[in-house]
Amino acid sequence: xITNSDAQKVIRPICDEAVNWDYGFNYSGFIIxxxxxxxLSQVQSRLIQIFISDSNDPNATTFSETHRITLDxxxxxxxxxxxxxxxxxxxxxxxxxxxxxxxxxxEVSLNSNGNxxxxxSKKLLTVPYxxxxxxxxxxxxxxxxxxxxxxxxxxxxxxDTEKIKKRVFKxxxxxxxxxxxxxxxxxYIISSNTLIKIIKEPVNQHVGGFISIWIFTGLFYFIFSxxxxxxxxxxxxxxxxxGVLLDNKSIIVAYDYIRGEGxxxxxxxxxxxxxxxxxxxxxxxCNQCVEVCPTGIDIRNGTxxxxxxxxxxxxxxxxxxxxxxxPKGLIRYASEENIEKNKPFEFTFRIKAYTTIxxxxxxxxxxxxxxxxSVQVNFFRVPGELYQLQENNIxxxxxxYKLVNKTSxxxxxxxFQLNSHQQGKIKLVGTxxxxxxxxxxxxxxxxxxxxxxxxxxxxxxIKIGVFKNGKxxxxxxxHFLSPKNKW
Length: 487
What we know:
alpha+beta; Immunoglobulin-like; 4 domains; 5-stranded mixed sheet; 32% helix
């Protein structure tokens, strides 16, 4: 008789509910004869019994359940183990996850007309990244509604108390997370101080900001609840830029099709089989790389627009390779040339050029951050004005100035001093006290007066310092006109 179509099954927790954890995995096979050995003659229902135990610990907690199946004339069946006794199965899986050296075996029996015979016996594996996802609370789409099968069943279910509770819980989480993200996003655009003002002060004083928060909350909620991975596929420009910049020497997340396909292609795993000798590829076609991909692509088809290089497929594949006693790295960081020609990584001229440009940009950025001042100041001569010659041969020029506060704090007690001409004076017009508010711009007018005897040219460069409580913050320069011309 032919039993399980998959040579090795992988068990993994699907989701995490607040009260009842919903686990499950599929099992499929063919039955071509009855339990008593007679040929399968007619289409009728049968009983399939599932029994899971730890072969290393006969006293360990076990799990069993019975499924009623209806066979067609080919004898094919497919069941979801864990769907009949969900709570018992979730408790059993919890006990599995807590044991390190356990070796679990699943036996499948066919019961027909009082006769029972074992039709399959398979070793089970656990998937660690699914366990971690489960431990984190499962706040994603599977968090409250279960796995894909459970979600489909819930969608078809009538609107009762259970369905309403699950839907309200899930969408409430989406709205809460969307609201938090929208606030962070706006804080980046309008500054955190402005956002705090919008939150603290009455709504009628910040109607635009309040509306913006809820617009972005609605946008992020739409992404969470419906658009989801389509953002990466449609809206995000990363994939398009990646496609333009890549060549056959670019290091990417890649599937080694030479090793994975072999001479005779990939196939399911069979115990004690030397895949290399019979020409089979290393890939056992478990589809774990597809299951963990957030955008749902199959990396075995090559680099695709939707790939975001999250490396989840690498982790999943390495785990399966380790369990099937094959070398890791079937999916790894590699170039097309590395896979096709089996060439090692080479630090090419293009990579050297990119590295040099990146290093230069980093140095420039660090330099700009180092010399960056908290206040930016500019002095401009008033258009159309020359100079005034006052008593005692004092030359006066009029200027407008602009101060920019680059910090998130107010700067008080600012003053100007002439650094280049100590005998000169700067007189503020209209104010005697300078207060520069956080992230604000302040403009004003000043007269600069310098004795004629201290000027060497008719158009002389002067330096002005900006001080706070006697401590210099920054300096600037401008031109000063005087009657000492040479024409």
